[in-house]
Amino acid sequence: MFSWLMGGLLMAAGALAGLLVGKDSPQFLIMQMAVMMLLFAFIVAALALWPERWSPFVRLRKPR
To answer: What do you get for the CA distance between the two ends of the chain, in Å?
Structure first.
C-alpha cells in the first residue's frame, strides 16, 4: 500500500516537474524528487491539522 502511495506521488510529481523542466533534462529527477517531497509534506501537514481545523464544527455530545 505504501508503494502505491509513493507511486502515485511520483506520477503527480513527474507531471508537475515536466511543466518546469524537460524530461530529457539532467535536473528532471532532482526536480521530481523535490516536488514529490513537497507534495508528501503537504499531505502530512493536511492530515496532521485535519482534526484541529474541523474541531469548531464538530459538536460532540457530553456524557451525562
So the answer is: 42
Structure-derived torsion over alpha carbons of residues 4, 28, 44, 11, reported in degrees to the nearest 10: -30
Judge if pTM exceeds 0.70: no
| DSSP code, position 62 | P
Nearest to 40, CA basis, from 51, 48, 30: 48
The answer as to whether 59 is a domain residue is no
C-alpha torsion sign, points 14, 17, 23, 25 = negative
Q: How many domains does the chain have?
A: 1
Which residue segment(s) compose the domain that 34 sits in? 25-54
Q: Please give the Cα distance from 13 to 36 (Å, whole number).
A: 5
Query: Under DSSP, is residue 61 helix (H, G, I), strand (E, B) or coil?
Result: coil
pLDDT (tens digit, 9 = 90+) per residue, 37-46? Answer: 999 999 888 8
